[in-house]
Amino acid sequence: MSHGPTVQREAYISGIGMSEVGVRLTRSPLKLTVDAIKEAVADAGLTLDQIDGVSTYPGKMQIFLGFSPVGVDEVIEVMGLKTRWHTGAAESTAQLGAIADAAAAVRSGMARHVICFRTVYEAAAMARPQEYPPMQRREGVSGNSQWVSPFGAFSAACWTAQFAMRHMKRYGMTREQLAQVAINDHRNAALNPRAIVKKPLTMDEYMGARLITTPFCLYDCDRFTDCSTVVIVSAGDALDEVTATPIRIAASAGSVERYSWDQAEWASAYPTGRDLWKNTDYTARDVDTVQFYDGFAFQPITWLEGLGFCEVGEGHKFIEGGTRIALDGELPMNTGGGQLGWGRLHGFGFAFESVVQLRKQGGARQIPGEPKVAVATSGGGPMAAALLLARD
Amino acid sequence: MAWQRSRIRLDNDNRAFWTGGAEGRLNITRCADCGQFTHPPREICRHCQSENVAPHAVSGTGKIDTYTVNHQKWAPDMEVPFVIARVRLDDAPGVFLTTNIVNCPVEEVDIDQPVRVTFEEQAGLWYPLFEKVPA
Question: Are residues A47 and A30 in contact, defined by beta-carbon separation less than 8 angstroms?
Answer without folding.
Answer: no
